Amino acid sequence: MENLTIIEHPVLQHKLTLLRNKQTKSCEFRRLLNEISGLLAYESTRDLELQAADIETPLEKMQGREVKEPPIIVSIMRAGNGMLDGLLTMLPFAGAGHIGIYRDRFIQNTVEYYFRLPKTSAGKQVLLADPLLATGDTAIACIDRLKQYGVSQITMLCVLVSEQGINKLYHFHPDVRVIALSKERDLNADGHLLPGVGDAGDRLYKTKDA
C-alpha cells in the first residue's frame, strides 16, 4: 500500500506505548495524543510548497521561505478533537474544520450531525485527524464529504489503523494518504482495535469509568 506510511520513530513508539497502557490517566492520555499529533503534523507536511519571503533579520535583509498554501486541518469528532491542538500548535497558519459523523449500528450506516469547514477550503490540502481507523466506515463518509466540498489532496493522520479499515478505505479512496504509528493485529466483535488503546474518546474526556 504505497499511500500508507507507518512511522517507526523511537520517540513516537515510546509515546504510543504509554498511550496504550490502561494505567495512563485521562490527563496524560490527552497530553500524549497532543504531542504525537504535533509530530504527525511534521511528518505529513513534507511536501508543502514554499514561496519566497523578503524579511530583515537583526543584522541584514534576506529572502526566506514560507508556506505558500496552508493546509486545512479537519477533526473527525469527537476523538479527532484530541489531536487538533497539537496539529494547530505545529501549524498555526492552518485553518481548522470539524466533521461529526458516527456509525449507527441499528441502521447499519453512517450519520452526519455536524459539518463545518473554513470558507477557503476548496482546492486546499486537508489533514484529516482521527486517532483510530477501525472499520473505516466513518473515515470513508468524511472523505466523501470533503471531496464533495472540492478539497485537493487528503492526508489522514491516525495513531492506529486496522488492516480491514485500510483495505476498505483504499477500495473507495486509493488516492488518500494515511500516516499512522501502527497497523493493529485485529478488530474485536465490537469493532475495537486489538491490542489498541481502548475507546480514544472515552479516554480523552473521561466519559466512561475505567
From TrEMBL:
Keywords, comma-separated and alphabetical: Allosteric enzyme, Glycosyltransferase, GTP-binding, Nucleotide-binding, Transferase
CDD domains to which the protein is assigned, alphabetical: PRTases_typeI (cd06223)
Matching Pfam families: UPRTase
Domain Phosphoribosyltransferase: 7-207
EC number(s) given by UniProt: 2.4.2.9
InterPro entries in UniProt: PRTase-like, PRTase_dom, UPRTase/APRTase
NCBIfam families: PRK00129.1 (NF001097)
Family: Belongs to the UPRTase family.
PANTHER family: ADENINE PHOSPHORIBOSYLTRANSFERASE (PTHR32315), URACIL PHOSPHORIBOSYLTRANSFERASE, CHLOROPLASTIC (PTHR32315:SF4)
Descriptive protein name: uracil phosphoribosyltransferase
Organism: Thalassomonas viridans
